Sequence to fold (357 residues):
Amino acid sequence: DSLPNPSSAPPIPILVSPTNSSTGISNYPTLRWRRPDTTSLTYRLQISTNSCYTNLLYDESSISDTSKQIGLSYSAKYYWRVTATNDVATSSWSNTWNFTTRSAPQTDPCDPVVSSFTSLDKFTIQDANGTSQEMFVRNGGRVINLGISDFDFPPPPLKGLINVRFQSDKFIETILPNGKIKKMPVVLKNVRYPITIKWDVKQQNNTQYWLTMPGSQKKISMSEKGNTSMSNTSSEVLFIEAQAALPRPCEFYKTYIEENIPTDFALYQNYPNPYNPTTVIKYDLPQNSYVTLKIYDVLGKEVAKLADEYQEAGYKSVEFDALNLSSGIYYYRLTVSSSGQSQINTFIETKKMVLTK
Fold:
């Protein structure tokens, strides 16, 4: 894979683990490589979702050790490579290896200990290039035990690469269950607009969230699963506000789940329809499933992706903001894959909607 190494540079690093093409890797893996000699001073690590490294998720050039622990998404494939630098020059890139992270574990909502990222409230910022950053929030009334002690984001990426993070530089924020409202500024740098803001809020965490759009007093309530889009803005900061009470008792949550599980898959007509510029799409999941929800124009071109993830069973709703689209007819398609009783079930349905401006 790698190019010839400059004569004055240290030897090219040798990747060690996770081994190439491995699967079922932790979503918080430690990447390791071998130092071929003693002249290397620092290393540069790149992680991407493609082998061309045009969609970088991580790029740090001042690593002094031969390993780095990184937080990643579940059920995703990643590519990584390393260079070494001495006091004269930088080596060529190592070979490119890839690995796939494990599927999200099933968690017990009644467990007071948060032992998986899937138990945390999650917020994702995705820009027009498809590059995204996940951030998490926990109710301080729940004990956290994720097997890691450092909740800091890695150093900011190199200039020109997307940089989205809580202003606190924590990728897991804590909200105390005291009823007070906490503002969590989110810094946006080097993003390509429009951006999509997604949220996945767990009922058992008993925390309310609101999103304040830059340059306006408009607040969007964020509950369960949903998303909204934001056009170009001169502001580099948006605000998520949170208010937490003590986590729900186990009995409450079990009752809530039992009353909020549909019996069949379904996709409903969006409302309102026609709409300008926002509308709500609702669908039912009788079991935990992998869900894809996309918007297409009349030519069949994908214009928006509202969901592409594993979701828990329940009654779902997503708000679609078509601010950046032209008036006309559009189609939304729900594709669901789930497994049960030794077989894979697939549900696909498409409906038409009308945007009027």
